[in-house]
Amino acid sequence: GWGKSFLGKELARALPGSTVVEFRNARSAEAANARLSEALAARPKPPSGFLILDDVDELAAVDPEGTVLDALLSAAEKHGRIALLSRNAIPLDLTRYAAPHEVLSLKRQDLELTPEESLSALSASNEPREVVERALELSGGWAVATLFFSRLAREGRLREAVENPAGDLLRDLHEYVGAQTLSRLTKEQLAAMIAVAAVPSATCEDVSAALQQDAAPVLEGILSWRPLYLKRDGNAFTVRPLIAGALQALYPIQIRASLERAARAQGDARNYVRAAALASAAGIPALAAEFLDAAGPYRPGEVMSVDYYEVARSLPLELVCASKCVFLEFFTNQRVRSRPYVLAQRLERFVQSLTPDVDPFVRYSAQIGLLVAFNVSARTREAEVVARECIATAAAFPEAHDRQKLLMSEFSAVLATLGRVDQGRQMWEETNGNEAPAATKFYLQHARIAYFTLLQRGERVKVLELLEQYVGMSRRWNDGVALGFALAVRALAHFMLDATASIAGDLAHIADAVGIKDFLELSQNFGDPFEPPTMREREHPIQTSCILAIDAALAQSDPELALRLIEGAIGGFDEIGEPYWQIAGRLSGAIVPGAPRDQLLAEAEALADQIEVPELRNQIQSLRLGKERPGPYSAFMARLRNSVLSQGASALRVNVVKGTVTRGGAQIAVRQRELEVLAVLAMAGGPLSIEQICAQVWPEADPAAALSALRMSVHRLRKQLDDQSAVLNVTGGYQLSPNIAVDLSESEHVVAALRRLAALTEPDRMRLESIFQELATTAPLNERMPWYQTLERRLDDLRHAAANLIARDALANGQPLRALETAEALLRIDPLDEPAVETAVRALMAAGERGEASRRWRQYVRHLEDEYGTQPSVDLSELLTETALQTA
Predict the structure, then answer these.
(1) What is the mean pLDDT of the chain?
(2) pTM beyond cutoff 0.90
(3) Is 364 in contact with 392 (CB distance < 8 Å)?
(4) CB 19 within 8 A of CB 51
């Protein structure tokens, strides 16, 4: 199977006059001799090329005395050059027929391509490095596979092929493996190989169940073969990926049967979760659900296994709803509930697909599942409606105690979220009795009730303690999505209860959490910058997206832009329907100059009346009357009062890009060293310790000397700015006064705000173009200090963010040349700027210049390889494929 037959055919094709004789499946020495005689008769006279004898080991098996080969090789001079191809060693001393120097012997290792040779065969393609590395791993030096992959790479189909070794793209390779390798196996050996290919990490017991006999001798025999078809790791067996792919493609019925037999054997042994996973892999979801039900319920607080979760998630919802145990485990599971938007979408589609003849119990269960999905995905008003519909039909299912408890516990959490915290707590206690929350299946619902009770009372310390417990519990699950979701909830509470907390900073810290990408796209528009701004948050908002819009608004000096952001947040909060957040939106709007303050505060007061928290209602009533009163929103009100939006633009302005300071437009003379200290403080956006400042401004100086220089510089800076409060003393360091405007921060805030808008106005475009042009044309500061590296990174990030917004807007409005001009400006700064190349290619494609787009891409790939010896990113490689297909 390592290419001997392939090599023989290539040899025959390359050398005219060559003859191939196949001894495969020869039944006797007479039959083999007949094949040979027929081929010799057809050989040219005088002989030319090679006489190629394939599968000589099969000839030796039917002619153990070697009569046929001896007669042939004894007359070798008459037949010309001879090539003997054999899978296994043959008992033949070739030096009896030729001198040693006339014999060339090639073994398997001689036919393997080295890693360098394999890489060379694939390097002509533009596939990303990880795709090429996967192809090299799969081929393992096998020339047949490597050359086949090389062809697919030239056709732009290698990624799809290596992602699915059993797919149709590899059909020719599957057939080759089937003919050259699998056809030689005995019935038992083939069945064993199929079982190992079918069952993930198959054990000997799994294979025995598939063979319905002891598989140990068969497996041990296969393990002794060369080349290796099987690998053993402890008690687990795996098949080489390409052979496994061929088995899965050629024997799908046997694969399914092996999985089913292994599943039933695991079920008989009461390994129910493993049995369910195998049944699911076999495509028998009903059997998988049956095994999960047999596994029984998890204990309250017990962490569900990943295997159980994966099987439960793969089950059709109809089976989940009809199950005995899986339903409750699924909808109370933190992993499931931490993926709320996917869950809601799936449940909505399922409920809409139910026909009138569906089992009423399944319909009832599906409605409860929809209630859970709506509640955890910030669709609280809809959740309340569904809950009441479920309660109205619950009497028809008196035996479904598990469904009833989930329904009422979930509804209690909905009520608390809507401000009716006393009702919610009472309902949870009536449903679950005197049991401690941790001893029930519904501790997540109880935690939600406690969270909203404390949040709406403004009890900062207790809220954060509760959320720390939630985060700790999420860490136990070892699930990135669940942890990221918990951290996001904590970030929201920080923002509302701590006037100095930064929600953008908190979210940035969780940006790398595994599996949290969907959440960040929903909340921050972190998706593809070239996608139209019709993201899912436009269809249904979430609290985080609305709060980020308010946060962006508070940093604006332009009331019109701020009001557009806050109006969007208010609309989002109204769609969610949670009074606590609806009030927050209206309080934000009330501070915007020109906004209908009285109307917004009146609406906030009406919303406060829906919340069963007297201190909250009293605080909002006081605000309505123009009085200050401590209460749950005190920290949030302080945030609003201290914002740039509320206090207005500062006359004193630091321009870190140009290295200037102005007051009211007039430039202030600041010495170089003081300017460096000012720039470091301006870029920090908050307090810095003395050590941090000195490390950036005086990195080589003695600590004592640096401290003395810093104090002198701060003294001089206050004097030069004629403002003693310009630099504030903080514990262990200094901070630039929040009243001082910083050009870089202002531009970052403007771009962040514009990213959150569904569409840009002409003033938005002009402002964006102004920011981009300044960043693309202004010469940076000359002196390269350590702090300047941070400035360079921020300038680059801001330049790209502005460019992406301009390009997205231009392409959405049918102006590809405007997008191209933006890309060209970036490429003048860095010819190997990947985002700029992508923008240019997209713009050229949109303008109908597909040939130029393809040329530009090829040029970029070539330069990247020459400069850095690397390949483009995956996204850009996909862009190349898209461009090539459209060009074709």
Answers:
(1) 87
(2) no
(3) no
(4) yes
